[in-house]
Amino acid sequence: MTFLPDFSRQRARFLAAVARHHGAVTTYPHPLIGRQGEALSTDVAVIGDPAASKLMLVISGTHGVEGYYGSDSQIAWLDDLPPDTLPTDTAIVLLHLLNPWGASHLRRVNEENIDLNRHFIDFSRPAPLNTGYAQWHGLYQGNRAEADRLLAETLRQAGWPAVKRVAEAGQYQAADGFFYGGQQPGWSYHTLQRILRDHLAHASTILSFDLHTGAGAWGHPMLLAIAEQPVPAHAWGKKLYGEWLTLLYTGAGRDSETGVTATATGYVSQFLLKALPQTHILPLVVECGTWPGEEMHRRVREDHWLHLQGDPASEAGLAIKQQLVEGFWPTDPDWRELVAFRTRQIFIRGWQALQRETI
Ligand SMILES: [Zn+2]
Fold first, then answer.
1. In a domain, 134, yes or no
2. How far is the CA of 178 from the centre of ligand 1 (A)?
3. Cystine design at 206: which of 69, 92, 240, 281 (Cβ 3.0–4.6 Å)?
4. Is residue 254 in some structural domain?
5. Does a structural domain hold residue 257?
6. What is the pLDDT of residues 89-102, one digit of tens each?
7. For residue 260, how far is its CA from the centre of ligand 1 (angstroms)?
8. Residue 48's domain spans which residues?
9. For residue 85, how far is its CA from the centre of ligand 1 (angstroms)?
10. Domain count, the chain
11. pLDDT at site 358
12. What percent of the chain has pLDDT over 90?
């Protein structure tokens, strides 16, 4: 058994890096405990003037287990930053582990089996209906042997891209199902709303990065702007990043070759755009590719079954966890070096542009 990442240790490293910059930390305690009985929280660190009108926001752990890449990138960014040299009116806001339960329990989803990147919809309106999901719900619950047989048959007949389009689009009906988006705002939804009020709503310009792994080509971090439709800030993004930036528009029937699901609803990026209508905000996503989509689906599905019917603390459970962690945060040193290098480039270009931006 190799090393499994540890929430408390990761959080301590993050807080130590923030302290070296005399950053201000706000802790949002989570009501549940972690995999090893530890207290859980989302933490927000502000480096620089909290009232600054230009902010660079970096979010980690929207998908819990991906938060170890995200947190490491936040720590590396702090370690890179020369102390006490922030330009006036520009600050850095680091949102550490939006899904702390998932980070600790080594899951992509949260404590309610909710995928946070399907969750950020407008719950005052009827949830999107994924009509295709109901026929394939049997791949993800019930009798395991029957579900495995169904999956093999579905993959043979419909093919992986068809399964991906339907299953990964998100669904709001089956709480025990796959890529479930929830039926009401959960803890992370309320917490993100509080964070917006506490740290972001006053700003006039925000450049944000939501850090992910697990989709796209091995070791290659993609830079994406994900939204339901074009927004004026996308022109700023293209000017800044040129061909490095892919604009991904989501909605029913849409497709994408990036490996990131275009049919999905409830992305954090889209929520930020809607929640801060007066702000010049460019929400970007960094998505670091690991294994092919079908293999990632296998690993995430194993973890889904483990929490439905198995014992995550058993030896078999830990082996599934190890596969999942390796899927989202490969130990391969070249992979880690490449994604760290590219993530740093993305941050530096954005940070420098944010300083130049006049309001
Ligand atoms: Zn993700």
1. no
2. 14
3. 281
4. yes
5. yes
6. 999 999 999 999 99
7. 9
8. 7-123+186-291+329-356
9. 32
10. 1
11. 65
12. 86
Cα of 232 from ligand 1 centre, angstroms: 25
Kindly give, in sequence order, each residue whose CB lies less than 8 Å from that of residue 138, ignoring residues fewer than 6 positions away.
146, 147, 150
Structure-token match 């042997």, residue found: 145
347 confidence band (pLDDT: 50, 70, 90): very high
213 CA distance to ligand 1 centroid (A)? 5
| Closest to 184 (Cα-Cα) out of 252, 120, 251 | 120
Give the chain's end-to-end CA distance (angstroms, integer): 53
For residue 241, the domain's CATH number is: 3.40.630.10
Q: What is the average pLDDT value for the chain, to the nearest integer?
A: 94
Which pair of tokens denotes residue 231?
């927004």
Please tell me the predicted confidence (pLDDT) of residue 15: 98
Domain assignment of residue 227, yes or no: yes
Structure tokens at 277: 């209508």
Buried/exposed 85-124: b ≥16 CB within 10 Å, e otherwise: ebeebbbbbbbbbbbbbbbbbbbbbbbebbbbbbbbbebe
Distance 285 CA to ligand 1 centre (A): 9
pLDDT at residue 49, as a whole number: 95
223 has which bridge partners? 245, 286
The CA 66 to ligand 1 mean position distance, Å, reads 6
Dump pLDDT digits (tens) for 131-167.
889 888 999 999 999 999 999 999 999 999 999 888 8
Q: Are 276 and 206 in contact (CB under 8 A)?
A: yes
Q: Which two tokens stand for residue 290?
A: 């690991």
